[in-house]
Amino acid sequence: MKPSIIPNWKYQKPSKGGYKGLKKLLKYVSYRESPDHRPVDLSDSWTDCGLGSGWREVYENAGKLSGPYVLAHHMVIAPAPDLMALVPEELRQELVREVTERTIESWFAARGLNIPEYSFVTHDRDTDDDYGLQNLHTHVFVAGTVENSVGERESHRVDRQHVCTDRGGLNREDNLHHIARREFEQVLDRTIGQEWRLLPEVEQDQPTIISEMENTEPIVRQTPEIDL
Questions:
Q1: pLDDT digit string (tens) for 69-84?
Q2: Could you tell me the domains of the chain?
């Protein structure tokens, strides 16, 4: 069964290269053009959930809230374009924003953590296949540490099972893919009804958006666990 939504996760290290890479990525996602090559109004593209309302503010706050292992998390939330095409056009942008917030916050809550500061930018482009469907997705930047119950900042481990679909990951309640599918499908049900679940499956794979920049780090290291 093809996924209804594809979330991807990676992180930047608190190194000289990590800071440089984060700044480059933040500027890139901020100034990417719209599908018809018009500059995007930055005030419309960014959603501030505590980390900042633009790339400069996000970059500065990420540095302040970084940990010994993670400068910032970078995630991409990409709903399937064919399913998004069923949603009335005027509702799509807000739907993607809602799904992004629900996914990020539910993922941290499922792991018993407080919700960290994060911000995201919404991208609107067309798919690269013959169908040319609208491909709305978000780039999410999350603080590298989480505040605990006594107000201290802590780093937390992300296991492979939290972010991968193999090794039983999809069966875990704290798995990013499991949570993203649940949240997106619930919002779809509420928005357009459950008839979409009866549609025949599309044979081709949905496009996977990991990062739209060259020379980025792989999403998952070779080690089974990543210490954050």
A1: 999 999 999 999 999 9
A2: 5-195 (3.30.930)
